[in-house]
Write a structure and sequence with these properties.
The structure holds two protein chains of two kinds.
Chain A lengths: L7 H6 L1 H33 L9 H44 L6 H4 L5 H38 L3 H49 L1 H7 L2 H53 L6 H17 L1 H7 L1 H16 L12 H9 L4 E8 L9 E8 L4 E6 L5 H9 L6 E6 L2 E2 H4 L7 E5 L9 H6 L7 H10 L3 H6 L17 H15 L3 E5 L7 H14 L4 E5 L11 E6 L2 E6 L1 H7 L1 H10 L2 H5 L1
Parallel strand pairs in A: 3-8, 3-9, 6-7, 7-8
Antiparallel strand pairs in A: 1-2, 1-4, 4-5, 9-10
Helix pairs in contact in A: 2-3, 2-5, 2-9, 3-5, 5-6, 5-10, 5-11, 6-8, 6-10, 8-9, 16-18, 18-19, 20-21
Chain B lengths: L10 H34 L8 H55 L1 H43 L1 H31 L1 H16 L1 H7 L2 H54 L4 H23 L1 H18 L13 H7 L8 E9 L9 E9 L3 E5 L6 H8 L7 E6 L2 E3 L5 H4 L2 E4 L10 H5 L8 H10 L3 H6 L17 H15 L3 E5 L7 H14 L4 E5 L11 E6 L2 E6 L1 H7 L2 H11 L3
Parallel strand pairs in B: 3-8, 3-9, 6-7, 7-8
Antiparallel strand pairs in B: 1-2, 1-4, 4-5, 9-10
The chains are: A alpha/beta, B alpha/beta.
Amino acid sequence: MNSESWLRPYVRTYFGRFLLIIVLGSLTLLTASMLMFTSGFLISKAALRPENILMVYVPIVLVRTFGISRAVIHYVERLVSHDAVLRIVSKMRTRLYQILEPQALFISSRFRTGDVLGVLSDDIEYLQDVYLRTVFPTVVALVMYVFTIVALGSFDIQFALVMALYIFVLVAVLPWVSLLITKTKTKLAKQQRGQLYHKLTDAVLGMSDWVISGRPAQFLSTYEADEREVAHIEGQIKSWGRWRQLIGQCVIGLSVVSMVIWAGQQFADQHISATLIAAFVLVVFPIMDAFMPVSEAIEKIPRYQDSLSRLAEISSGERDSVEVSTLTTAEAQALASEGVDLKVEHASFRYSEQSPWSVQDLTLDIPQGKKIAIIGRSGAGKSTLLKLIEGALAPTSGTVQLSGKEAYQIGDQMPHVISVLNQSPHLFDTTVENNIRLGDREAADEDIRRVVQQVKLDQLIESLPLGYKTHMHETGQRFSGGERQRIALARVLLQNTPVVILDEPTVGLDPSTENELVRTMLDTMQGKTLIWVTHHLVAAEHMDEIIFMDNGAIAMRGTHAELMEKSARYRNLYLLDHPEAYVVE
Amino acid sequence: MDKNLLGYKGIKPVLAIVILLTLVQSASIIMFATWLAEVISALFAGESLHQQYSKIYMFLGAFLVRHIINFIQQKVTYAFAEATGASLRKQLMNKLFELGPRFAKTAGTGNLVTLVLEGVTKFRNYLELIIPRMVGMSILPWVILVYVFMQDITSGIILLVSMPILIVFMILIGLAARKHTERQLDTYRTLSNHFVDSLRGLETLKFLGQSRAHGHSISRVSDRYRSATMRTLRVAFLSSFALDFFTMLSVATVAVGLGLRLVDGNMALVTGLTVLILAPEYFLPVRMVGADFHATLDGKEAGAAMKSIIDEPMQQEAELKGSAKQREAAGVQWTAESKLVLSGVCVQHQVDANPSLNNVSAHIQGMQKIGIIGASGAGKSTLIDVLGGFLQPTAGQFELDGSAVNSLIHEAWRQLTTYIPQQPYLFSSSLADNIRFYSPEASAVEVEQAATAAGLSELVRSLPQGMDEMIGGGGRPLSGGQEQRVALARAFLSERPIMLLDEPTAHLDIETEYELKQTMLSLFNDKLVFLATHRLHWMPDMDKIIVLDHGQVAEVGTHQELIARKGAYYSLITSQMEGVQ
């Protein structure tokens, strides 16, 4: 998929609107020019002192009409073009969403750094400019070009060709040279700006280290040196911009002079009437001004490249989705209602033939209601195991089955069977109620009250002035990390699935908040299968099995009591998490 | 327009040059209009083209002079804007480092970086635009107007009257547009954020089984956003419509008036043409101001934002008084005999808020391991910031080896300390350079030793480039435990006697934490260590425990002592035990 596919199809879809925009844009320029033309004509005609004022009546009306209509047409043109572009943006957004939706569970692992989603959304905003600032002005200028030459050609073809040459310099030569000169420089400047951005973010994040190391002066001087380099390149681009402007104005000056000479000649040869001399000369200024912005419009092209290639890259990431479910919603609901028997048998997975095994010959038996904890370092294979159970990945060998159905075949019906509470569940910029209702769109108000009560937030929420209608965003600061997790937990409870995956939901909470949350989770999840990935041993005693993973395989497993008895390592680890043990010491 | 503007260094000569150039420019505009009008009316009267050539050249000359002046003006203002922007950035950067990490955290890293990089560019654009626009607006129209009055009083009056009408309408419409936008700001914000909010929440939607259905709401909300935007734009564009409308109407009125007076024979064609050519020039400066309005506004705001950081009150560098002067010459030391006494240290971030630290006193002597514990919000991090010399206490005294100081914000003190936060920051450079950060001159062998001591040898062996492997942003990602080990190696290599650690293991998995603890304890030997944490398992290994509660010191003592006392420490331990059971 190439980058143009983000631009071209919309031209076809909105051809009518685009045409209208071009027509209106041309009319805007035309009326401005015609105002000067008819004004010149009017005063020349008046200078001949016609006996009857009616002789100049028509030009007077025209001058007034053009004077008024330019503003009106321009206003309409801007509205129409913005409307069309916003329509395109809406389409692009939907499209980007549809591309990202199937890969939803892989985005965070594919793009480790930064806020790639925020960047993509900005990219689409930025692509508006392709139309508004590059395509429309350029096409309008070309239309004007053709129109001007044809109009002039009807008087004198030879002179029309001379003028065509002048305008050609403005609409083609200058933009082309401009693009040649600035293309690499713009790219370089942008690249270096990116590096500056990187460097500065680095420095601000690591500021305590700079300060303690006593080396800020050193950083500041290298940073300033880099800034100067970028400023130098940007200065060169600016400098060319000034030259371009000056060259363009020289061309305009010359074309005015040519027009004066031509019109004088034509009048002397009796080809045109005296009244047209002023009209022809005065119209040159507004017409030529219309061509000046083309260079700027063309110069912008390299700046769109990054956005376009990022979007193209995302589109190419579309994987053959494994998620087309072989189950109907009713079948999935039936499966869920009977209790789920989760069996992982000799399952192995690797992302490609070359990569090492992420999960290796793993066997788990988790009947309905069993609670297991999974512990392991980062990279031990926990996330991959979860993806296998969630059905987002199909095992390379072995099976992962939910009551006899392959997990990956359940696909997009999985949310009826398994719900997930992870480290940073997203709370949407809407009301508390709407956020919780995402768990089950059909839920009645009482259901929502019930789950909120279960997660012990009822008092807090009811004490807020807007209660359940409180916006998450407005109170973003007021809801603490623990409270946010509780809202997400309420949502998961409303989803009401037989199996719940807890993917380190308490990381970053302080011990007492964590303990309270853990207690609430255990209380509300009774009877459900619990698969709890955790980074330490809180509530280990409440688990039916504890599994330590290492290199994609199980390194140690057993109940808390068994492990306490037979493993010294486990006892050491347990001690770290249970300070009360020291009291006895 | 902007009161600060005249305060920038070197603006006066620039302003003088621009004013002078603008005066010349207005003369050249009047001349090119007059000469062009004269040429046209001569041709109109039937004079031969040959006689006009000299005037045509004069016209061309005046026309070019006008644009060359533009060129010079832009060059001069750009150079000024560039220099001023750069100096402002320099001040800002220096200030940021003086204010230190605490300020950066409150202001937000992203905000600061954007302000430095984009804010300076915007501000530069602002300066570049505002100077010629301001000068142009205050000279060009009025010189032209005076000349038009000299030519034709009626046209002059039309132009004079339309200017205030135009400006008043623009302002009125601008205000109406702002009101309109403000009224629906909330809906507007929600609608415009909806898309990025949806993308960020995509994973969650997927888990909830709502991601498919949500696709429809994207296009629905986008359409609502479009209608809302269009409603606003309809009003917002009116402002430039008014500008356009009144300019064009005024030019048309001038033209028609000229025509009528020409018919009456009260005027020569050349006068009429001159006025007609000058009429659009009269409006050009105000149109340019209108076109650049938003860019200048942005830049002005960015400038103000930077100024407010630069004017931020400074934390004072501690004064080492009296006998300490000699000490400073010899360099501040921390040895086994050194003593640091904190008495009555308070930190209050806001006047009416509860203090983060309240009357904290402590005696610290020699190479001890000191644990700082307490519930979240008890003031652990604040105390570490005070001890690290990042933060000036609002009240209280320190006594360093007998000499009193009012804070620890001092270069010499910082030279003694290393600091390891919960997530140590790795710079994007090689592993070796990251380890070498506090002591850039360290040899490869020393770096190697530090890496080994911090337990990094296995990692180094597994990396294809070994010590030269790039890490940090854009480089090879390290796990949380490995990051901590790099920070430890850094601290080890620096051989600084004081270590400050703020919650170094809270986010790690328990196996990593266990192994890291062993490494850390071995590195703590013969150092003064302050370890703030809520992981209580560290405490038996500490020589002294400071228990904080709501900013106050609740208890001080060793693990055994405090257990025996059954006070705050004891209840902290037992409360964690109660949690789940």
